[in-house]
Amino acid sequence: MRKWKAWLFLLAFNATAVSAQAIDELKLVAEYPVEGMRGGNLSGLAVCQGNFWAVSDRDDDRYYRLHSEGPIWKAEAHAITALSPPESHLPWNQRVFVRIAEGRRGGSLDLEGITCDRAGNRYLVSEGFAAVLQDPVQGKQSWIKWPDQLMSEANRRGLLTQFNSLYEGLTVSPDGQELWLAAERQRRGLLTLFKQGDGWVCQKQCVIFAEGGTKPIPPALGKRGPLPVDFSDIAYYQGKLFTLERAAHQVCRRDPKSGRSERCWSFAATLLAPTRHYKQNWGLAEALWIDERGAWIGLDTGDLARADGDTRSYVLHYATPTGGWVLP
C-alpha cells in the first residue's frame, strides 16, 4: 500500500511540475505605432493579398487598410456601405445594452475581428450584433445569414450569454469554405460554419469547443486575482487554429476540429516590459495574424498611454518560433 501511495504521489507531483512549466516566450522583432484610425481602438488585424487591414470597435462606417512600409503605419479608411445587420436572435436586454453603449462610447457594430480568404474576400465580425459582414472582391458588401441553430446551440453551451462577451474574432479557411468564430469569455468557445451554396450551415454541431474557468495573470499586471479565460482573436494557418488569449498573454495552437489546445507561446515578457506597460490590470492584445513571418499582435489601447506617454495603437511583430508554428 505504501508503494502504491508513493507511486501515486510521484505521479501527482510530476503532473503538477509539468503543468507549472513555463511556456516558450515569443521573440519580439519590431513594434509599429498606427496613426490615422479615427476611433483608435485597433481590435482586429489581417493580411489580405499582401496588405494589412484592421478594424476599430469604435467605427461603424469604415475599416482600414494599414500602409506598413515605414516605421509608422498609416491607416487609410475603407467605407462600410452595407445596410443594418440581420436579426441576431440576441436576448432583448443585450440589444438594449448595444444601444446604450452606442450613445456612451460611439459605435454600435463593435467590430472586433477581420479576416480574408485566398481570393481576397474580407470578413468583419460585429460583436454588437453577433454578425459577420462580407466585403467581396467583386460585388456588394452583405451580411452573412446564420443558421437558426447557431445561437441556440451556443447558448445551450453557455456561450454568448453576456453583453460585450460575444464574438471577439473570426477566421476563414483559404478556400473560403469554412469559417470559425471565437466567443470571448464567461464562457469562451469556438464555433464553426461551412459554406453551402449562397449560405452557411453547421455540420453535426456549431460549437466545437466551450469552457469556463479562470487563469492566473502575469505578475506584471499587479495583484489582481485570476481573470476569466478568454479569446480575443483567432487565426488560421497551415491547417491549425491559433487563438489570442488576452488575460494569459499567450498565443495557442489548436486543433480546428475539436478546438483542443496543442501548444502555447507567451508574449508577456515583452508586452509587459516597463517601457511598454500600461496602467491597467487587464490585457490589451486584441488582434492576431499568423503567417510564415511570425505573429502580428495588435493592441487596443483605447485612450490609455503607456509608460513612455504614447497613446497610439500598436502592432507588435513576433518571430516565428524555432521549428515553425505547426511542429510539436
TrEMBL record:
**InterPro entries cross-referenced by the UniProt entry:** Phytase-like_dom
UniProt domain Phytase-like: residue ranges: 40-187
Keywords tagged on the record:
Signal
Q: Give the residues annotated as coiled coil.
A: none
Under the heading SUPFAM superfamilies, the entry gives: NHL repeat (SSF101898)
Give the Pfam families listed for this entry.
Phytase-like (PF13449)
| Signal peptide segment | 1-22
- Return the protein name: Phytase-like protein with esterase activity
- Tell me the organism: Pseudomonas duriflava
